[in-house]
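Researcher: Here's a chain I'd like modeled. Treat it as a single chain, no partners, no ligands.
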Amino acid sequence: MCQATDQQIIEILKMEAIPALGCTEPVACALACARCKEELGGVPEKIEVYVSGNIYKNGMGVGIPGTGMVGLPIAAALGAVCGKTEYGLEVLKEVSVGDNLQVAKSMLDHDAVKISLKENAPDKLYAEAICHKGADSVKTVIVHGHTNIVLVEKNGNTVYSKNDTPVAAEANERAELSLARIWDFVHNIEVEKIDFLLEGAEMNKAISNEGLNGEYGLQIGRTLKENIDKGVLDNDFLNNVLIRATAASDARMDGCEKPVMTNSGSGNQGITVYLPVVVAAERFDCSREQLIRALALSNLVAAHIHYYMGHLSALCGITIAATGSASAITYLMGGTYAQMVNTIKTMCSNLTGMMCDGAKQGCALKVYSGTSAAVQAALLSMKGIKTRNDGVVEEDIEKTIRNVGIIGSVGMEQTDKTILDIMCHKA
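Model: Modeled as a single isolated chain. Structure tokens:
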């Protein structure tokens, strides 16, 4: 493989910097239904949605923006009523317009929406919608990526198709990326070429503020701030990181109508990649340029690790995102490349194994754990403390990253099935 060029790395960053409204797994279902509606020329009368286990796991317990409801059925109905594919991961941003929500709820009341697991789904990220209107039916298939529509059929005839392959950042022919190459890029790229990352910082700060001002989810961020105000907790760096990140996750997972800038197709991972870095830059009085470069580092480290694991697995993606932010915090504290490597090794040694048991309000707790570990790892590394090359950690950091990917994609396969089985058979 050839080393990734600056432009190729910028393209990876742009692919990661995608706004999303709501959890991206229900959004994928909504997008598939929206495409069906567009081909039918109107709102369907009946909807069937077939999803992979991981989509089901991450979709059934999460709040849908602007609805006060959770789960895939209302997301699918809204996609079919008011979704627009041109909005991408913000497909549901017209939920509150007119009587869209009432129409979608009526579909649920009349049992017009059916959600089923797809037997032998070809990918962990798979959503298939079949919508009926009169004598017409349309099928839309999304696979590999949350917006990656690979097939549209109307009445059995192909309207649109493309190769069922991963999106560019995950393609096998991707140019070689390594931590050393990322470190070089972050330090040498003209900052004007990556300053678009500030949009993500501002977007995620906005939903964090919303989480602090409203009673969303588990109210973790809000509770932490209240206890600082009471003098129970210290107003220190760690607690401010935890407040900002968890407040954003609280709001997002409880159906807040503000978008989030994602990383690796996930809003919570986007929150974790951006907000601890923003807080660190503020705390250490860093320049605008330093913040931009740190955001690039955080996003790229997370994307690099995800490359070996895929977007959906039994390993909680927050661990990967937090490793990205830990790397960036180390950079903002004046850390060297070697210290960043040690930070990543500490994160791999600490959180590898934290399982994903579906998207829900409790994800804010995992954001809490991940961001806390990120700060601790950076502080330890800056003091010269590093993990031994034991367990999944090897001397070669790239081998360590691959080991984490193997655990998430292969090693926890049975865990994933067990979690799904438990969720599907709850009393």
